[in-house]
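Forwarding the complex inputs:
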Amino acid sequence: MSILTTRDRILQTSLAMFNTHGLAAVSTQKIATEMGISSGNLHYHFKTKQAIVERLFSRFAQRLEELDAAYADIGAIDDLWLSLHLRFEAISEYQFIYRDMPYLSAEYPVLGRRSQDLTATNLLAAQALCEGLVAAGVMKASDEQARILALQLVFTTSCWLSFERLVPGREPQKSADPGLAAFYTLTLFSPYVSSDAHTYLDYLRSKYLR
Amino acid sequence: MSILTTRDRILQTSLAMFNTHGLAAVSTQKIATEMGISSGNLHYHFKTKQAIVERLFSRFAQRLEELDAAYADIGAIDDLWLSLHLRFEAISEYQFIYRDMPYLSAEYPVLGRRSQDLTATNLLAAQALCEGLVAAGVMKASDEQARILALQLVFTTSCWLSFERLVPGREPQKSADPGLAAFYTLTLFSPYVSSDAHTYLDYLRSKYLR
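Prediction (whole assembly, two chains):
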């Protein structure tokens, strides 16, 4: 087995265990046991649990930043829906990050700061997106409305999965529906979008609302 | 010292410690040590940590339900701002509850279910509020828009303080500004409110937006 493969398996196993059991409850010892490798072997690849968490955080941040960069190609509401869908998939795949943020930022202050930097990057990208949608005539909004919409967009994508656990009738272990989450996020835009875009929102509504 | 007083002091100390150190990190032993009482004395008042958490949760839920009940008296946007202000104060005072929800609901499933029931109650109240504001002519919205607005209202009040920790420039220990949080929540209503109500939103904007 190559070094790369073991390293990747450690990251995959850690991610799954952090998501299922919570970041606080999973030690490097437990990860090694789960993988059937020695602590020494794991230690050879990652000196500390923090090093594993940092690597996973970097991958997560990269996913979101790629989605931020792709905002430039969004020229209609259906593109936006797809983009939000992919974002919720990424946040769900790395769900421990936003879910366990109080523990993560207290335990690893460097990652707390990187999370804030990521939010700042996301906010700027969301602002450019909203301004772009106004410029393209997809929606009508003042500069201030576009800024507030960008803030609502980042807030909703960051926190929606945490809120879903508070809503009755949800199985705690059931994975979230990224399509529904994307539809819900789009409803923030509905007061501002043009009538063309409303046709697509109506289609999504028929798909997701009872 | 009366039984009531020690009992209340235990609850106050526990609340402060849960908020500061996180629910997971605080044991009944640590609470007793902090108060300078014996574990036996604490145990006399609360058999388990869960009993303390349940009592604090009941107080929190009662605060929110009282605010839900007071929605019936809201006939204008400034009443709504005050009501949201008070709600964010309550959520901030019991901040460990929504912040540490993943741990809380895993450790005490009965409280996970009570949190979901509380969200359901809040959603129904928010829906009645939005319908009331439409009926009073404070805003214009279809039934579906009012339902979505109610969902956005409950989502925002439940999760905003968690999001604030993700925003750069925030001191992690600094307490949130309930007035700013209330203003932000009101911006969800702004596409729907009448021009009279916009005067008050403009006043809040001048106070809270740079």
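Chain B has eleven helices and no strands.
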